User: What shape does this take?
Amino acid sequence: MICKSCGTEIADKALVCFRCGQATAEPTVKPAVLADGRRRARKVVWLVAAVWLAGGVVVWNTVFDAHITRGERIYVDRQQAFADGHGPRADMDQVMSAARSEGLRAAWGWTSVELAPGLVLAALWWSRTRRGRGGPPRASR
Ligand SMILES: [Zn+2]
Assistant: This one.
């Protein structure tokens, strides 16, 4: 920290400034500030996690929707082909259930692609905070 009296950089745990002898009122204030910053950091982590999970839901829905839309287009195309006299009558249930199962597979695939890097980051963050807690004891009064 910085001495309030002379502006010299002094040890964070110093009770008096080694240069001018000014007592530091900091020790009673600092832990609160630190805890506050840690709480804010945790809030940011939760926010990022929420955005990440929401992103997973968006990816899932987008991919699944795209397959359903494609299934509908395939059905309409086949129906048209049948009307024109090429090919068999289109089976809505068969086309849509194929689109749905393919859509589910693709949706989960892309969602795991979106979620995987987040899981790695979360694991890293988790192990780092765990290690931090096992470190030197926090300053206490
Ligand atoms: Zn000083």
In short: The chain is about 70% helix and 0% strand. Helices lie at 26-83, 92-134. The chain has a mean pLDDT of 85.
